[in-house]
From TrEMBL:
Entry keywords, A to Z: ATP-binding, Ligase, Metal-binding, Nucleotide-binding, Queuosine biosynthesis, Zinc
Family statement: Belongs to the QueC family.
Superkingdom of origin organism: Bacteria
Record flagged with keyword Metal-binding: yes
Signal peptide: none
Function: Catalyzes the ATP-dependent conversion of 7-carboxy-7-deazaguanine (CDG) to 7-cyano-7-deazaguanine (preQ(0)).
Protein name: 7-cyano-7-deazaguanine synthase
Originating gene: queC
Native source organism of the sequence: Thalassobacillus hwangdonensis
Pathways involved: Purine metabolism; 7-cyano-7-deazaguanine biosynthesis
UniProt-listed Enzyme Commission number(s): 6.3.4.20
Subunit structure: Homodimer.
Binding site for Zn(2+): C188, C197, C200, C203
Length: 223
């Protein structure tokens, strides 16, 4: 039997999923990317995703998931709601209920179509901001469900699951992608590429990790 070494990466054009894309390129012979368009605050994300996959010569599919904004009026899908961090354990206003459940299910359907066995997502429990569908236990449960539903042997990979932002930068560096990720990706809720606006929660989280990683690098050079 031929070894199936093809992977589909759930790809948003952000730091995390771009790092996952490089990770996938290292570990699999063939990689495709899928981006979900759901009337994000910034259709800019989709543009960035297109450019990055183009740069890397990766086949890229964009799937329309705009029905999500019909179901869930929140800060990522609607322009009239401000991005706020969750207070007192409440979920942040960027939460889209069921997003990863839906995205990973569609990614698996696509994987079946293109004959890929592996699906990669950048979800992470360490900085998970309370999103229940970023948790490891959810991914493991969904993996079983997807395999049962399609009678397949998919493997869901989560290379960032236990990494914090600093360690995600370290991984990008290890993959030879540090500058690429720093300059070309879009994490900022205000749609500013690279180091971003510096003010929104996503930028603060990203910068925090980057500063920590750079400080550690400096320390390592000195000793
Ligand atoms: Zn920002």
């Amino acid at each position: 039997m031929e070894k199936n070494n093809k992977a589909v990466v759930v790809f948003s054009g952000g730091q995390d999923s771009t790092t996952c894309l490089f990770w996938a390129m290292k570990h699999f012979d063939e990689v495709e990317a899928v981006t979900f368009h759901y009337n994000q605050r910034h259709a800019e994300e989709v543009e960035v995703a297109k450019e990055i996959t183009n740069d890397l010569g990766i086949k890229h599919e964009i799937l329309d998931m705009s029905l999500l904004s019909q179901l869930t009026p929140n800060a990522l899908t609607r322009n009239d709601i401000e991005v706020k961090e969750g207070e007192d354990g409440a979920l942040p206003s960027t939460f889209v209920p069921g997003r990863n459940l839906l995205f990973l299910s569609f990614a698996a359907v696509m994987a079946k179509q293109v004959n890929a066995k592996h699906v990669i997502t950048g979800v992470c429990e360490t900085d998970f901001s309370g999103y229940p569908d970023c948790r490891d236990v959810f991914i493991k449960s969904l993996n079983v469900t997807l395999n049962l539903s399609m009678d397949e042997q998919f493997v869901l990979h989560t290379p960032l699951m236990w990494l914090d932002k600093k360690e995600t930068w370290a991984l990008a560096d290890e993959l030879g992608a540090f500058d690429f990720v720093r300059e070309k990706t879009l994490t900022c809720y205000n749609g500013v590429r690279g180091d971003g606006c510096g003010e929104c929660p996503a930028c603060k989280l990203r910068k925090n990790g980057l500063d920590q990683y750079l400080a550690e690098q400096k320390g390592a050079q000195r000793s």
